[in-house]
Amino acid sequence: MVNRTRPYSILLIEDNPGDVRLTQEAFKEGKKEVTLEVVADGVEALKYLRKEEKYAEKITPDLILLDLNLPKWDGREVLKEIKDDPQLKRIPVVVLTTSNAGSDILKCYELHANCFIIKPIDFDDFFNIIHKIEEFWLSTAILPSMVV
pTM here? Predict the structure, then answer.
């Protein structure tokens, strides 16, 4: 059974303030009600997901948007930790990064990323990508968090 009684919760793991702002604005324009939480490095991302310290009251996100090039722990390390954790591995992870390296793409899928998207440089293209993420992940796909 599918149940949706609250806004969608998305965790954006991104250290670039410009990309954070663009993502926030794109979701504001979207069709779904979204709570977008942001952490700027891999260590904070794992604290958030494990509900440690100041994140103890946070809800588990429905979807994670993960940049690869992060301070402290990079996105590959974060992805591995998420997918190795029995409590977190069902959360879909969309890698959203500037990297177009084949080795990064293959590594992320080996680590069980659910999707790999190269960030567009153009403002309108970036908004379009966020809207496509919203359309697929929040309108078409049935997320694990929706199953009761």
Answer: 0.95
